[in-house]
Amino acid sequence: MANDHCSVNCCTNDKRNESGKDLSFFNFPSNETQRSQWIAAIKRDEGPHFEIKKGCTLVCSAHFKPSDMFKSITGRTRLKAGAVPSQFQWTKACNERSKNKLQNLKEINEMQAQEERRQSIVDSFCQDVELKQVTEQVTVQEASAGAEPMEEMNAELENENIQPAELSAEEQIEILKAKIKDLEEEVEDLKGSRFGAENISKDPELLSFYTGFVSKERFDSFYSWVEPYAKTMIKWSQIQRQRGKENYKRRRSCGNLALSLYDQFFLFMIRLRLGLLETDLGVRFNISKSSVSRIILTWANFLYTMLGQVPIWPTTAQIKNSMPECFKTIYPKTRVILDCTEIKVQRPSSKVLNSEFYSAYKSHTTLKCLVGIAPHGAVTFISSLYQGSISDKEITRRSGILSLIQEGDEVMADKGFLIQDLLEPKKATLTIPPFFSKTRSMQFTSKEVTETQQIARLRIHVERAIRRIKEYQIFDKVLPLSLAGSVNQIWTVCCLLTNFRGPLY
């Protein structure tokens, strides 16, 4: 509520209004000119000692604008909500609060810490100055007391730490030669301890363990045969880059590889013989895993091409000249001994492929191959790899061996090879163990027993040849599907490399 007079409730003044005018809000003039004069009189009446009374709740109407007030229905004057006086401040500037004890304690601690740091810097500086002075004094005393011993000591040190530039040319050459000799010995020691073909081939047992070659002479002889062609072979990376182009330039395969051709071939043979993983081979030869993969694929395709050009199917005359006595006396017309073998592969995700590759004999998804050997034990025929579900008769029909059989030849096989009808057009005969006949007596005759033993004793050689192939331990594990594009090449190379290991028996 607005008060009627300033001096009654909210203001005190040491001067009274000289004109004696009523300064209440109810006599507030309506004329603009009179209103201005009235406000000026109010300001003069307030004087320099105007102040708000302590505890006052009423305010003089002179301290509000006319727009801040309104008259109620009863005719009383009221202030509008949010009205602010325009002639004085509501609050006075308060004095700054005094700091509490905690703040005073923090300031004292900070001042003490600063003083301690300053004092420590001053003390360290003084100690450095004193130490320098003492050192100078000691140096002066030693120089005056022991000048001659110091000269002798310096001469000895100069002789011990003599520089090469102070020596004669001949002496410098001798020193450098000695250093070169030491470095050469270190290099030779490092070469001798490095894992590679040069070091492993020195030990025949290690060479046979890592590569399958029984001696260094055979290993070097085989490498010397393929080396001229290996220098110009196309790398696997080149084939990938140039795939889809009809013409591309042949470049050297060993140009940007860290390993020599000799070590590359050695790495490939280790992969076949021991089945080491590519990561392990990368660590052994200090190359990346991707480089190992490219080397293996390159050499697999290269050796597949090189060894595939060698005619391994012997003529009839060659078979007769190399036939062992055990065959000459019983089965002298034997041309080839056949048998099938299987290697396990990863299960494909496709249900159709899984059923095609599943082998009931191995109870696993496999790849099947037909292998043929001559009577003297050399591998003379290798078919491609087929699905594991294929039968022995069907793989014989598809493999192409029937085109190599001539009239009068004998083919020795196991009981599962019911291929007599396939050999009849060639006028060749099939030698297999006799079957048990239920129409006759419940046991074999003495002649059938003898025949079974004779055939089994001779046919076992093909099992031994297959065992040689399986000694390449890359086939011990389940082959991943990532090798599906090169598994035929790797299998064929392993089969043909067994012929370089010497006689089977």
Automatic annotation (TrEMBL):
Residues 1-88 form the THAP-type domain. Residues 166-200 form a coiled coil. Gene3D superfamilies: THAP domain. SUPFAM superfamilies: Glucocorticoid receptor-like (DNA-binding domain). SMART domains: DM3 (SM00692), THAP (SM00980). InterPro entries: HARBI1_dom, THAP_Znf, THAP_Znf_sf, Transposase_HTH_dom. Keywords: Coiled coil, DNA-binding, Metal-binding, Zinc, Zinc-finger. It holds the Pfam family THAP. It comes from the Eukaryota. Its cofactor is a divalent metal cation. This is THAP-type domain-containing protein.
